[in-house]
User: Fold this.
Amino acid sequence: MSDESRLLREIEADPDFRAPVLRIQAARQTATLLRTLRRDAGLTQRELARRLGVSQARISQVESGDIDHLPPLDFIHLFADACGRRLTLSPEAGIAGGPVSFPSPGEDARLAEELAPGSAIDTASADGGATVDLPKPSTSLEVVELSLAMPETGETVVRGVGFKLSRGDVLVVVGPNGSGQSPLLQAIAGLWPPASGSVRLDGASLNQYRSQTLASTIGYMAEDFHLRRGTVAENIAGFHGVPVSELVIEAAQSAGLHHRILRLPQGYETQVESLLPALSRGEQQRIALARALYGEPWIVVLDSPGSNLDSEGEEELMAALSGIKARGGIAIVTAHRLSILGRADHVLVMKDGRMQLFGPPSSLFAPRTSPADEHTKDTPVAADAVPFPSKGRR
Assistant:
């Protein structure tokens, strides 16, 4: 018997160490099951990440079998749903059709409580697992020399981006397709680990905060959002415990949905699955927007929130941004349309993964003074030349 095997048996026989050993086994078995589900569905990690509204790095983490990235039950449900499978999970019985079990009902509940689908942070492992309970941030958000890389290829998609926002600021991020706007927003939301640099709230990097604190501090909506089986109220609340009626209604009102929901057959208790054939993509996007606004998170990160909205929906989006600003929150938005600049305090222009400009919206139309472009010096940037992306990878 090898020393490693002997040590493992000794640890496994010790009750004080049995839970960690079970977590190691659960992480490995879960990773095997999730990889199989994804491959059977014919999906790449990138395609699945887009369906779930998370980073590709997150998918790579949960498929790695690393104990630090053991996903909670709600994430496994979402993963399976996105692969076209439905799993039956319980702490005692594990996953139907697979060998996965978790250490104990108490540990399983703790893990499940750490995931709020649609909100920013899903597990403490995403930021290293803080042990000191810092107070909720409320003053500043700073991105410090942030670089991001694709987990599978190591390709750098964001290089050395840095800026600072304060209470009440609205930032609009623009740029051509493939410029890194979506990865940047995912990193700010805590869904894409930095290759270098950091995202800091009130001076502390994300990995210094507990995941529960971040989950209630940051609301996130992905460009390729998806609704889940369940009621309208559950989708707005992100399936994070029992929906709080007051918070659900407030979020729906902020997204301009409340009166529309009241006209549904069962109102907030209507099953989303029964509505999907009739729900337009714009109406689905409003529900996803309400999910990002649930609980009035201090930071709201929205990736192309107006891409499927009509003129009425766009007005309600503008009103939501004004509401975030009025309560002292911070909103970070990518956009396809110039009209959203009317709500912006700052604009960040991205190109080829690098920050080209950060400043007030008026700076987009100011004369260029870069010595590298002398032939364009003092030539104003026309409104129709602002590099807004078309749909696709950003």
